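Format notes (please read before filing issues)

Several people have asked whether sequences and structure tokens are stored in separate files. They are not. Every record keeps both together, in the order shown below: the sequence lines, then the token lines. Line labels are part of the format and must not be stripped during preprocessing.
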Amino acid sequence: MSVNQALAELEELRQKGKLAGSWLITGPYGVGKSTLVRRFAGMLLTGKDQEITFHQDLKWIERDYTEEEKKDIIKTLNAGKALDTEIEKKRSRKQEITIDDIRGALQFLSLTAGNNQWRILVINPADEMNTAAANGLLKALEEPPSGTIIFLISHNIGKLLPTIRSRCRVLSLKPLSNFEMKSYIMENYPDVSLVDTLVQLSNGSIGKIKEIIENDGLNLYQKVLSVLDESSLDISAVYQICDTAVKETSKYLLIKDFLLSYVLQLAQKTDLPDLKRNEILQLWEEINQAFRDTDSLYLDKKNMLANIFFKIGRAK
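Then the structure lines:
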């Protein structure tokens, strides 16, 4: 269902007095799960259909800074120095939501709501709770305090413990249609060209649209295409793209998506012999595994990307 349909369903349950409890909001990245929760929180806590992130009766649990990063930040502030905004944007975050995060959430739930109506806890994404954190939340999910709503946002429901899933009511958001995507782009980014290309690359995800536009992704995609569509690869151009990727994580992630998408498009050509199609699909698996290995083992991204470009060039 869409964000508006989900909002309508939640509002209907509120009017019937059947809203309180634990909710699991699922769907692919960027389809509006966080937007849904922020808008509904706004409706409950302010009486207006507006997105809110901060409110005394709303607690939003996400991955925090690592302990080492916290010490660096405190040290900088204690020295009377300003934090470097760009450095802060690039700081890595903890890889999981921990039991300490959940203890803070449970303490929040035990308090009385400021408006004597609702307290809202959001865990985003719930997929990143470690086992201790997930187990620590189970009792609250099964028996939430009166007037409490718990929203678990999940990009990959398969990563959640079955005991978590079984204690929540589920709302599943689906990718937007091409028509809805085009309407969103024309309304919010009227100056953007290559609208059909942007829709194709975003796969029904408004979040992906924002990511592509804010990181000059269309220009980057054109550069990737100009290299791969040539009969022979321009080695200099390949390494220029790789240099761009290793300098900015956001651009690395986009290039990763573009390369995987390009290989899938090769495999979907209607005039392709079955043997060749299977070879290309196998290449897609190899590339996907290369990205997983590089990201998890901190391997050399530049060499890995260059090798992928050359493999695709040979496979065409």
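For reference, the curators noted about this record: The first helix runs from residue 3 to 15. The chain has two domains: 3-62+97-172, 215-315.
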